[in-house]
Design a protein that fits this description.
The complex is a heterodimer.
Chain A lengths: L1 H16 L18 E8 L6 E6 L10 E3 L2 E2 L4 E10 L6 E2 H7 L4 E7 L5 E5 L12 E6 L3 E11 L19 E12 L1
Parallel strand pairs in A: 4-11
Antiparallel strand pairs in A: 1-2, 1-5, 2-3, 5-6, 5-9, 7-10, 8-9, 10-11
Chain B lengths: L9 E3 L11 E6 L13 E4 L5 E3 L5 E7 L2 E8 L6 E7 L3 E4 L8 H7 L12 E5 H7 L4 H5 L5 E6 L3 E6 L2 E2 L3 E5 L2 E2 L20 E5 L4 H4 L6 E6 L10 E9 L4 E11 L5 E12 L2 E3 L2 E3 L4 E13 L3 E15 L9 H9 L17 E16 L4 E17 L12 E19 L2 E16 L11 E16 L3 E19 L5 E2 L2 E16 L4 E12 L3 H5 L1 E4 L4 E4 L7 E13 L3 E27 L2 E27 L2 E14 L13 E9 L8 E11 L17 E12 L2 E8 L23 E9 L1
The chains are: A mainly beta, B mainly beta.
């Protein structure tokens, strides 16, 4: 019987020698993350640009994002440019370039809550001549307050009905970005 | 398990004088097939009358007072496959049995179909032989689904996980050739990394067999074993081809085995390739649902009277496509996909697999040896190494399509030492100890925050179980202690690496018995406990889970999950009518699951619901029913039903993702099998799955309607060749299955015609 328990004992002894440890993780640069969206509204003619900004430096979860927006003039024309950054890494990555490089796969859409008059037209095009939306012209209507939703779709069907005109209904694809700003037109 | 090949029967009918009614005697001896040693205390009984006897210490037996007519004798001995012999009795007869006595005592006891003196006190179902072969060509989970009480959790047509009595993934243990399969099983989209064509048998144990197989067997255990190796020279092989219309592909698999010149030594090699393109739902193509799978295994070993040696290696590699339309960006995308009738991306059929896709690689190497150290004891040692690599590719911006978004490697080493003793005063048992060391780490370069942290676990276990066997009943008891250490490496809020460490100790036990009222009737009872330590994903998840559009938060305060499962089974086994009903109740303490908190987290992709891993006291109860009827010699019916009721006792609502009630019916017409003549059969099957009425309120979409599928398969066999031609989902029914994670996005596949050929040589 001694022999019988010798092997299990030996085996158990051996296991005590196994001092396993977890491998140190490598820091991850979230290269694809978008942390900041800045919309610069430059009034045509004179006036100072207005900034709308959504920032979530630690990505999904964690700290809540900070959102700022400014007041727009009623019945005015703005040249709007989008700036997308990944500021979680240093130096920050300019996502605009990635979107331009894959222009045919991306498009921005803009929607407002009811009662707000805001129309837009695309000022930029991808290699197929379809709109992207990094540069747009926006026309404000009468004074009102509400919300502005900015959506970036990836892998959408740009040929679907209404999409080139900025209607998201038939676009399909998946959402890369969707942020909401308080909108004040005065 | 009717390995008639291994059985030799000597039958002498003495020309003695005629006896009157019911005074006939059968006598003989039971000897080991190999060395002719008497197999003492074998059970011999007559199936028709239930009369039986025990052989004496020299293997001799006598059955007296038998009536003339047909009798079926069953001879069984612990460690042997039972032998069944039918004969027409008219006078005193001498009948000797030569069972093959296995040296691998424990395995034999653990892995054969329940029979007298062998039936462990567990509810188990085994698939083997032709029955198993007929299921080949499909995924492992789909094959096991033919067992009542087993369902399948799918992520589209290609990826499927077996579920036993409502439990899946980390709660179901899969044992490949006596080695606990260790891969990435925490995700619902992680199919077991096993090529089913290596299997000679698949056994589903529905009890919580934590004592024998170790932690995590809360739901049950699936044993996948190759056939025993040949021991004498001679080449044998099998070739299988399976072609199917849905997915326009198929599987080819082969097996070769032989013996070496030195007696006792044998080898086997298996290989398979499986290729399918996009599957087709009624009305549209399920884009990007193809799969590519390769499997290979090689085994060599020696089986002798003094001991055994077994060396085994298996390799599995697969690429699975995931339905393109199931990739979504945020919650509104998901809601749009749910409200749409059809997936928003439909492309022409292709074999090409694009992102999102998974690449999986699994190696398993095992060395096992056993030796008889005394007349009583056999020692067995086993060492195994598993390397599992998983890469998941997502739809990404920029040139990142070829960079995996998840890249994990898990390396597992297991060592086990068992001491098994031969029957001693009707006791048969095993003592064992095992150690498992596992290291799981993320390969850097994904550019995505890993879902689970790097971790290592060490598990040290001691266990023992004994069975007391009498002709009329068996009793079984076992006890196990496991000590597990989990070390993780994570970043804290200051980006410093910290090493949270968790220790768990758990005792589990099992108690059970089988009572044979008559040879035709038996009842089995088992009470078994098992536990599962929280997984690293449950402790540390913190991020966006794209596939479900939710933010998943782990909890490092989670406690061990414990289950105490009771299964009661009643079986009847008559030549023309077999039935089994088994009821179970499985209370699980600290059951871990993901539950929406009701909060939404605002991200740059929009708002996402926050889900958190929480614990509850869950209660699962249900019943499985199996019936097989011989209506006419050429017509058989078999039916199955499975019911499950679940309760989240802290939240007072049902649990998410439990299988709905289902019924299976099979009607088969066949010609007598065997001989050189060809035989054929035709089977019609009807599968009815009811709507899951017991669904919790927090699902994204209501449970889909029930459905009925009709299938048909014809079989023709002559000699070594067997051909099956059939159709699944004959009426091209559109349906969505509650357990399919892609039910939010698309219908399940439609009609599928297939042709399968088996050639044995």
């Amino acid at each position: 019987m001694n022999k019988l328990f010798f092997y299990p004992a030996l085996f158990l002894g051996f296991t005590l020698l196994i001092t396993g440890c977890a491998k140190d993780p490598d820091p991850v640069n979230e290269s694809e993350l978008i942390t900041s969206v800045t919309m610069t509204w430059t009034p045509q003619g004179s006036g100072a640009p207005v900034l709308f900004q959504f920032k979530d430096l630690d990505g999904p979860g964690g700290a809540a994002p900070t959102i700022i927006s400014g007041a727009l003039d009623a019945n005015a024309t703005y040249t709007v440019s989008m700036a997308l950054l990944n500021e979680a890494v240093t130096p920050a990555i300019n996502i605009n370039q990635e979107i331009l490089d894959e222009g045919p796969e991306h498009q921005f859409f803009f929607a407002t809550t009811q009662g707000i008059s805001l129309s837009f037209s695309y000022d930029d095009t991808d290699t197929n001549g379809a709109p992207i939306g990094l540069e747009t012209t926006m026309l404000t209507g009468a004074a009102a307050t509400g919300k502005l939703q900015v959506t970036l779709r990836h892998g959408l069907d740009k040929g679907a009905a209404g999409v080139a005109q900025g209607d998201i209904t038939n676009a399909g694809g998946e959402t890369d970005l969707q942020v909401e700003f308080d909108l004040v037109i005065q | 398990m009717k390995r008639i090949l291994w059985i030799s029967i000597l039958l002498f009918t003495g020309l003695l004088q005629m006896h009157g009614q019911c005074s006939i005697q059968i006598s003989g001896v039971v000897l080991d097939q190999h060395d002719q040693t008497p197999l003492d205390f074998s059970t011999i009984y007559i199936q028709e009358t239930g009369k039986g006897t025990l052989a004496d210490s020299l293997g001799a037996y006598t059955l007296k007072g038998l009536c003339p007519g047909k009798v079926t004798l069953v001879c069984s001995h612990i460690g042997c496959d039972p032998l069944t012999i039918s004969l027409m009795l008219s006078r005193d007869t001498i009948l000797n049995f030569y069972p093959e006595h296995h040296v691998e005592l424990l395995d034999q006891v653990i892995t054969t179909a329940p029979r007298v003196a062998e039936a462990p006190a567990q509810t188990r179902t085994q698939l083997s032989g032709q029955e198993l072969e007929r299921l080949q060509g499909r995924s492992l989970a789909r094959m096991l689904e033919s067992v009542s009480g087993v369902s399948m959790v799918q992520t589209g047509p290609g990826i499927a996980k077996p579920m036993i009595h409502g439990l899946v993934g980390n709660r179901v243990l899969i044992v490949q050739n006596d080695v606990r399969q260790e891969g990435q099983q925490w995700g619902m989209d992680h199919a077991p990394e096993i090529d089913p064509t290596m299997a000679g048998s698949m056994t589903v144990i529905k009890g919580a067999e934590g004592v024998r197989y170790g932690p995590e067997a809360i739901g049950g255990v699936i044993l996948i074993k190759p056939d025993p190796l040949p021991r004498s020279p001679g080449l044998k092989g099998t070739l299988m081809t399976h072609l199917q219309t849905n997915g326009r592909g198929g599987k080819i698999a082969g097996q070769l085995s032989g013996g070496f010149k030195r007696p006792g030594w044998g080898w086997r090699a298996t290989g398979s390739a499986h290729l399918l393109g996009d599957q087709q739902a009624p009305g549209y193509i399920l884009s990007n649902t193809g799969l590519q799978e390769w499997g290979f295994s090689a085994q060599s070993g020696y089986t002798g009277h003094k001991g055994t040696v077994d060396l085994y290696y298996s390799f599995y590699k697969a690429t699975f496509g995931i339905l393109r339309a199931a990739h979504i960006g945020n919650l509104s995308d998901l809601q749009a996909a749910i409200s749409a009738d059809e997936p928003w991306i439909q492309k022409p059929f292709t074999y090409e697999i694009l992102n999102p896709r998974q690449k999986v690689l699994h190696h398993l190497a095992k060395l096992e040896a056993s030796r008889k150290v005394s007349a009583m004891w056999t020692l067995k040692g086993r060492y195994s190494l598993q390397i599992d690599e998983r890469q998941e590719f997502d739809i990404r911006r920029g040139d990142r399509d070829q960079i995996p978004a998840l890249d994990l490697t898990i390396i597992t080493q297991q060592g086990e030492v068992l001491a098994e003793h031969r029957p001693w005063r009707h006791f048969l048992g095993t003592l064992g100890s095992s150690v498992q060391y596992q290291s799981n780490y993320n390969i850097s370069g994904t550019g995505v925050q890993p879902l689970i942290p790097n971790f290592s676990t060490t598990t040290v276990s001691l266990f023992g179980f004994e069975r007391y066997t009498r002709p009329a009943y068996d009793l079984e008891a076992g006890l196990r202690g496991d000590y597990r250490v989990l070390r993780t490496a994570v970043f804290d809020s200051l980006d410093q690496v910290i090493y949270p460490t968790f220790n768990w100790f758990n005792l589990s036990g099992t108690l059970g018995g089988t009572y044979r009222f008559t040879p035709a009737w038996q009842a089995t009872f088992q009470l078994a406990s098992a536990f599962r330590a929280p997984g690293a994903h449950e402790l540390f998840s913190n991020g966006l889970h794209h596939a479900t559009a939710s933010l998943e938060i782990g909890d490092d305060q989670l406690q061990i999950e414990r289950s105490l499962k009771t299964v009661l089974t009643l079986k009847m086994d008559r030549p023309l009518f077999k039935a089994g009903i088994s009821g179970y109740i499985n209370p699980i303490n600290n059951f871990i699951y993901l539950r929406p908190t009701g909060d939404y987290a605002l991200t740059i992709r929009g708002a996402f619901p926050v889900f958190q891993y929480i614990q509850t006291d869950a209660l699962l109860a249900g019943a499985d029913l199996d019936i097989a009827l011989v209506i006419r010699p050429w017509l058989t019916y078999s039916g199955q039903a499975a019911l499950l009721w679940s309760d989240d006792r802290r939240q007072e609502e049902p649990l998410f993702g439990m299988p709905p009630t289902q019924f299976n019916h099979r009607m088969k017409v066949h010609t007598p099998a065997g001989g050189d003549k060809s035989s054929w059969s035709l089977e019609i099957s009807v599968r009815h799955v009811m709507r899951q009425h017991q669904a919790p309120s927090y699902d994204y979409a209501p449970a889909p309607d029930g459905y009925t599928l009709v299938g048909m398969v014809g079989e023709w066999q002559k000699g070594n060749l067997r051909v099956n031609i059939g159709v699944d989902n004959l009426f091209n029914q559109s349906y969505r299955d509650y357990l399919d994670r892609l039910r939010y996005f698309a219908d399940a596949p439609g009609r599928n015609g297939f042709v399968k050929c088996f050639y044995h040589f």
